[in-house]
Design a protein that fits this description.
Layout lengths: L1 H15 L1 H9 L3 H20 L2 H4 L6 H10 L5 H15 L5 H33 L3 H8 L5 H16 L5 H13 L4
Helix pairs in contact: 3-6, 5-6, 7-10, 9-10
């Protein structure tokens, strides 16, 4: 009976202790801190991979820029990993949100450009293989110069049959770039 009452007293003391509640709520967990550090390190890796012109668009402290420049030629895994950890540590002192937003916008732009190029490539392949594709293309893009496209398609077929360089094949792609609007 005495042991049971001691347990209840200990429980009440811990539950009613305001210091215990503050310490538990204020400090982020170790897992959260590690995730944050890894996120900063990943942003640092993206910065290391950028070309110097794009890197200069960021207003980074000199010490961070030096660390980034030092990490670029490193190819030993251990040394590069330590340098990336150091870059992550340096990034804790700066506001990372504008950097992340700019990196995300560049990646989004790159994805849109890639999708557009794939769309143009699909149109070119369809125009070269399917006879009805030109009619469908004309319906979708009424401002297209169909006579010029027919000439390019015909020349591309002739070049392929004669094993000549694919000049008209490339010109067809360029013509499609001018006709199909950007996404």
């Amino acid at each position: 009976m005495i042991a049971a009452s001691r347990h209840c007293i200990t429980q009440v003391t811990v539950q009613n202790n305001p210091e215990y509640d503050i310490k538990q709520d204020d400090a982020p967990s170790k897992t959260k801190r590690k995730k944050d550090m890894h996120a900063l390190q990943e942003i640092g890796e993206q910065l290391v991979e950028l070309d110097p012109k794009k890197l200069n668009e960021f207003d980074l402290p000199e010490i961070l820029l030096d660390a980034i420049h030092l990490a670029r030629p490193m190819n030993k895994h251990g040394a590069r990993r330590r340098q990336m950890q150091y870059i992550g540590k340096l990034m804790r002192t700066i506001d990372v949100l504008p950097i992340q937003e700019k990196l995300d916008s560049w990646q989004k732009t790159s994805l849109h450009q890639t999708a557009r190029l794939h769309q143009l490539e699909r149109w070119r392949e369809r125009l070269l293989t399917d006879d009805n594709a030109l009619t469908e293309f004309a319906q979708k893009y009424p401002t297209a110069d169909l006579q010029h496209l027919r000439l390019l398609i015909r020349n591309a077929h002739k070049e392929k049959a004669a094993d000549k360089p694919p000049k008209s094949f490339r010109l067809l792609f360029q013509a499609l770039q001018g006709i199909v609007p950007q996404m």
